[in-house]
From TrEMBL, chain A:
<dbReference type="InterPro" id="IPR040002">
    <property type="entry name" value="Sm-like_LSM3"/>
</dbReference>
<keyword id="KW-0539">Nucleus</keyword>
<comment type="subunit">
    <text>Component of the precatalytic spliceosome (spliceosome B complex). Component of the U4/U6-U5 tri-snRNP complex, a building block of the precatalytic spliceosome (spliceosome B complex). The U4/U6-U5 tri-snRNP complex is composed of the U4, U6 and U5 snRNAs and at least PRPF3, PRPF4, PRPF6, PRPF8, PRPF31, SNRNP200, TXNL4A, SNRNP40, SNRPB, SNRPD1, SNRPD2, SNRPD3, SNRPE, SNRPF, SNRPG, DDX23, CD2BP2, PPIH, SNU13, EFTUD2, SART1 and USP39, plus LSM2, LSM3, LSM4, LSM5, LSM6, LSM7 and LSM8.</text>
</comment>
<feature type="domain" description="Sm">
    <location>
        <begin position="9"/>
        <end position="94"/>
    </location>
</feature>
<dbReference type="GO" id="GO:0120115">
    <property type="term" value="C:Lsm2-8 complex"/>
</dbReference>
<comment type="subunit">
    <text>LSm subunits form a heteromer with a doughnut shape.</text>
</comment>
<dbReference type="InterPro" id="IPR047575">
    <property type="entry name" value="Sm"/>
</dbReference>
<comment type="function">
    <text>Plays a role in pre-mRNA splicing as component of the U4/U6-U5 tri-snRNP complex that is involved in spliceosome assembly, and as component of the precatalytic spliceosome (spliceosome B complex). The heptameric LSM2-8 complex binds specifically to the 3'-terminal U-tract of U6 snRNA.</text>
</comment>
<keyword id="KW-0747">Spliceosome</keyword>
TrEMBL record, chain B:
<dbReference type="GO" id="GO:0071013">
    <property type="term" value="C:catalytic step 2 spliceosome"/>
</dbReference>
<comment type="similarity">
    <text>Belongs to the snRNP Sm proteins family.</text>
</comment>
<keyword id="KW-0694">RNA-binding</keyword>
<dbReference type="GO" id="GO:0005688">
    <property type="term" value="C:U6 snRNP"/>
</dbReference>
<keyword id="KW-0539">Nucleus</keyword>
<keyword id="KW-0687">Ribonucleoprotein</keyword>
<dbReference type="GO" id="GO:0003723">
    <property type="term" value="F:RNA binding"/>
</dbReference>
<keyword id="KW-0508">mRNA splicing</keyword>
<dbReference type="GO" id="GO:0000932">
    <property type="term" value="C:P-body"/>
</dbReference>
Length: 106, 118
């Protein structure tokens, strides 16, 4: 029985994040940030201490400008069905910092 | 090897194959929550609060004594006491945090992940 602890496939990367905070991008402009307690090959997950962000765009009737609005809510413990999951990552650090680091301007 | 499956305080993985672990972590997890109150949020944005009556391998859910949580701007189900929810239409299930053994879950997820690689 194989009991390798090496990281070989993408799901292994998620295994490294157990008991860590993660960022989850979902369908329908939703994002979750929470502590990963469990997951499976479908990307069903259990997250603890979750903050959900739902982003919507409102169009101003007169100016036609796009207004981005986000709604947040907190949920202590959440099961997430995998078919809604798009991306799983460590939590985004300070975006200004990481973006400039990537561009080489810092 | 004839294994005696000893579950150490956990209800996870008791739907057994020979080594006691099935690739159905969340099925076992939900079975351990039968009788608890949960809120199921559907993909059509309807949120239903109720007592978890049963679950199956597809994570289809039966709830009893239901009520619509979010302000009842969504379909009023005033006369509906029990319901069956197809697993595929579920977006989230909000769980009581103190009914969840996070340590057990993490260990089970690690095991399940390693099992899946074979």
């Amino acid at each position: 029985q194989q009991t390798t602890n090496t990281v070989e496939e993408p799901l292994d990367l998620i295994r490294l994040s157990l008991d860590e905070r993660i960022y989850v991008k979902m369908r329908n402009d939703r994002e979750l940030r929470g502590r990963l307690h469990a997951y499976d090959q479908h990307l069903n997950m259990i997250l603890g201490d979750v903050e959900e962000t739902v982003t919507t765009i409102e169009i101003d009737e007169e100016t036609y400008e796009e207004i981005y609005k986000s709604t947040k809510r907190n949920i202590p413990m959440l099961f997430v069905r995998g078919d809604g999951v798009v991306l799983v990552a460590p939590p985004l650090r300070n975006r200004y910092y990481t973006r400039n680091l990537a561009m080489g301007t810092m | 090897m004839v294994g005696t499956v000893t579950s150490q305080g956990g209800a996870l993985g008791s739907a057994g194959d020979s080594d006691g672990w099935v690739e159905e972590l969340f099925y076992s997890f939900f079975k351990s929550l039968v009788g608890k109150d949960v809120v199921v949020e559907l993909k059509n944005d309807l949120s239903i609060c109720g007592t978890l009556h049963s679950v199956d391998q597809y994570l289809n859910i039966k709830l009893t004594d239901i009520s619509v949580t979010d302000p009842e701007k969504y379909p009023h189900m005033l006369s509906v006491k029990n319901c069956f929810i197809r697993g595929s239409v579920v977006r989230y299930v909000q769980l009581p945090a103190d009914e969840v053994d996070t340590q057990l879950l993490q260990d089970a997820a690690r095991k399940e992940a390693l099992q899946q690689k074979q």
